[in-house]
Structure formats: structure tokens, C-alpha cells
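User: Hey, my collaborator sent me this sequence without any context and asked if I could get a structure. I don't really work with proteins. Can you help?
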Amino acid sequence: MDYDEQLERALEEKPDIAEKESRFTVPDPELRTEGNVTVFENYQDILDTLGRDSDHLLKYLQDEFGTSAQIDDRSRARLTGEFNSSRVAEAIDEYVHTYVICPECGLPDTHLTREQGAELLECDACGARSSV
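Assistant: No problem. I've predicted the 3D structure and written it out in C-alpha cell form, which is a compact way to encode the shape of the chain:
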């Protein structure tokens, strides 16, 4: 068997990694409006996926939208004002990029820590530490 035949055979047998779905998928935000309040129905589901503290994400959303917010007794976020799903999804994507995904290896296996007043993103997969 010559080189070209071996190469062709190897390419046919290799797994197609690019088509595999990522193990980290953030649910789309489910919102509904109650008067002048946007109720974020699946806020807790998204928190569970991200593995972050409720107050951290809520403060980020408040800063991003320039509004006030609180968590109700059913673990839903209530944002003052009317916000559409695409705007909230965009904000969550930015949050994930900044506070969840490791900038070195691209994995979501991270946690937040504080060191000398600075907030750090530490990756459990590759060990990288970066300021956020």
C-alpha cells in the first residue's frame, strides 16, 4: 500500500469531530412581560448551566441594561422594563464569553475567585488564570 492509499484510508476512518455538538449549551432565555416588568422564566436553568452565583449574573444584567432587578420566590429574575429575548440572549452570550469560557482552552470548566481585590477566572481544565 503506498502513501496516498494509506492517507485516504486514514481520512476515511477518522472521527468527524467538527460535527459533534458541544457539551456546553446555554438555554435560550424564556421571557414574558408583566406590565413594565420582564420576567425571566428560566433564569435558574441558565444559572445551573453556567455554574455561577445568582447575584453575579443578576448584577451583570442590571449593569448591562441599566435597570433594577430582583429574584422572586420562584427563582425567576424580574427585570424592570421591557426587554426582548434576543437582547437578553446577547447579554448572556457576552457574560458567558467574559465570565465562563476559558480564554486559553475555550472550555467552560471555570470558576471565579477574588485575589487582592481582583476578580479572576480560573480554569479547572487547563489551569489558566485570567483577570475579568
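In plain terms: The chain has two domains: 25-100, 104-132. You can pass these C-alpha cells on to your collaborator as they are.
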